[in-house]
Write a structure and sequence with these properties.
The complex is a heterodimer of chains A (120) and B (107). Chain A is 0% helix and 49% strand. Chain A has no helices and 11 strands. In chain A, strand 7 (68-73) and strand 8 form a beta hairpin. Chain B is mostly beta strands. The chains are: A mainly beta (120), B mainly beta (107). The interface between A and B is medium-sized, with 23 and 23 residues.
């Protein structure tokens, strides 16, 4: 069955960086885009960007431009989201989700989420 | 950027009730509208894509309608497992924005 398994919780200090991984199984990794979405405690969902695992092309939300880098390693079917210059506002659960990205774009399978806590 | 506004932000309902949640886009997004359900501590789950298409495995009591700027999610007969938060999301253009969510609670 389709699974996206994310790396474990992280605690970081302000100004540091965090790298979250998302390992896919049960489908052809390069056939689906991977999106990253975050959710601050008690808040709604915020789209951060996507990566096309086939080409490596990325599309980031303007809000995160210059701070986020999305990469992938096709040999191990894993996508990564790197966020730097962390502040307390980046404390959130980070999700990866897959998207076939043909005519319609929608997220039909999600990772379990990775809690990133930024605290001094 | 496209803003998505859901209403209401929360509601109380009983098992068996018919429920409608509304989502409005700040500009025409055709049918590029998805609905997700999220339960506490869990990842969102896709219910409806392209405004009215039921995702595989989702019960038929869920339905979606609308196009352009106004959309609705309807639950025909609320079940105990449906108490959750619901989000709409536009995929017309990036950034793919979400509504603020509608929390459905037990009356």
């Amino acid at each position: 069955q389709v699974q996206l398994v994310q790396s474990g919780a992280e605690v970081k200090k302000p100004g540091a960086s965090v790298k979250v991984s998302c390992q896919a199984s049960g489908y052809t990794f390069t056939a689906y885009y991977i999106h990253w979405v975050r959710q601050a405690p008690g808040h709604g969902l915020e789209w951060m960007g996507w990566i096309n695992p086939n080409s490596g092309v990325t599309n980031y939300a303007q809000k995160f431009q210059g701070r986020v880098t999305m990469t992938r390693d096709t040999s191990i079917s894993t996508a990564y989201m790197d966020l730097n210059r962390l502040s307390s506002d980046d404390t959130a659960v980070y999700y990866c989700a897959r998207d076939l990205h043909l005519l319609w774009s929608y997220f039909d399978s999600w990772g379990q989420g990775t809690l990133v806590t930024v605290s001094s | 950027d496209i803003q998505m506004t859901q209403s209401p932000s929360s509601l109380s309902a009983s098992v068996g009730d018919r429920l409608t949640i509304t989502c409005r886009a700040s500009q025409n997004i055709s049918s590029f509208l998805n609905w997700y359900q999220q339960k506490p501590g869990k990842a969102p789950n896709l219910l409806i894509y392209a405004a009215s298409n039921l995702q595989s495995g989702v019960p038929s009591r869920f339905s979606g309608s609308g196009s352009g700027t106004d959309f609705t999610l309807t639950i025909s007969s609320l079940q105990p497992e449906d108490f959750a938060t619901y989000y709409c999301q536009q995929s017309y253009s990036t950034p793919y924005s979400f509504g603020q969510g509608t929390k459905v609670e037990i009356k």
